[in-house]
Specification:
The chain is an alpha/beta fold. Among the domains are: about 100 residues, Conserved hypothetical protein from pyrococcus furiosus pfu- 392566-001, ParB domain (Alpha-Beta Complex); about 40 residues; about 60 residues, no CATH class. The protein has 13 helices and seven strands. A hairpin with a 2-residue loop joins strand 3 and strand 4. Helix 8 runs parallel beside helix 10. The longest helix is centred in the middle third of the chain and has 15 residues. Belongs to the ParB family. It comes from Selenihalanaerobacter shriftii.
């Protein structure tokens, strides 16, 4: 089957309704209740407040750009692009909506829906990653083909897909912007979901920067020689001292070492920048 590539963007398959490229007779007024949503829509969440705003705008000024649909059977259509406009038009109480009717394969429908959202920056990072993965699985594509289809570099696709290796809880944090993508990518260095969730909790509670998170993870994933040194140190240390070090490390978000003697000792708190020192002092002042 020949494939239409979408690397040039939406204009490759979707005529721009207000650019004059679509003859007037190709834009139809369609019963809004005869249109079904795009089953390949990558977007999982729609902001109700923004939909209300768009609905009000449509009531006041009308629909400026038509949606794009595919005719499934006589009088029944499937949405290809413009789901926010379609939803807002329904909220506005429109009976009919302007639409460009074109024929698309299932793969093209998914690509168009994905590109539309990418160009408008409407997808969160996990929705984007899931959409790439669905293209790969449902249409037997390789990453390079997905990259060509959506006009992205192969490394962009690869880095996006790696987010799907995160613990489900971490994916939820990224979707809701509790964690940044930068923080999330550093967690991929950890072997288990439990470790990822534990470090994520520290990031959130201690407001760690990405650089601070990288240092923390580097400590947790030190090479075997360093691990043996740590084990040796642990064997020699009082378990109560180790527990205190661990509490301080979690509280301050940095490495803490206690050298405890018979009558006296010292606490060493490591920091790696002026910014990190200020953060540690802020925690100590609380």
């Amino acid at each position: 089957m020949s494939k239409k590539r979408l690397g040039r963007g939406l204009d490759a398959l979707i005529p721009n309704g207000d650019s004059g490229s679509v003859p007037e007779n190709e834009i139809k007024k369609i019963d809004i209740n005869k249109i079904e949503s795009n089953p390949y829509q990558p977007r999982e969440e729609f902001n109700d407040e923004l939909l209300e705003d768009l609905s009000y705008s449509i009531k006041e000024h009308g629909l400026i750009q038509p949606i794009t649909v595919k005719e499934e059977e006589k009088g029944v259509y499937q949405l290809v692009a413009g789901e926010r406009r379609w939803r807002a038009a329904k909220l506005a109480g429109l009976d009919k909506i302007a639409a460009v009717v074109q024929d698309y394969s299932p793969q093209q429908m998914m690509e168009v829906a994905l590109i539309e959202n990418l160009q408008r920056e409407d997808l969160n990072p996990l929705e984007e990653a899931k959409a790439y993965q669905r293209l790969i699985e449902e249409f037997d594509l390789i990453q390079a083909e997905v990259a060509e289809s959506v006009g992205k570099s192969r490394s962009t696709i690869s880095n996006s897909l790696r987010l799907l290796n995160l613990a489900p809880k971490i994916q939820e944090y990224v979707s809701h912007e509790t964690l940044t993508v930068g923080h999330a990518r550093t967690l991929l260095a950890l072997d288990t979901f439990k470790e990822q969730e534990s470090v994520a909790k520290e990031i959130i509670e201690n407001e760690l920067s990405v650089r601070e998170t990288e240092r923390l993870i580097k400590e947790l994933t030190s090479d075997e020689h360093e691990k043996e040194e740590v084990k040796k140190e642990i064997k020699e240390k009082d378990p109560n001292i180790i527990a205190i070090e661990d509490r301080l490390r979690k509280r301050l978000g940095t490495k803490v070492n206690i050298n405890h003697g018979s009558d006296k000792g010292k606490i060493v708190i490591e920091y790696y920048s002026d910014e990190e020192l200020a953060r540690v002092l802020e925690h100590l002042d609380r």
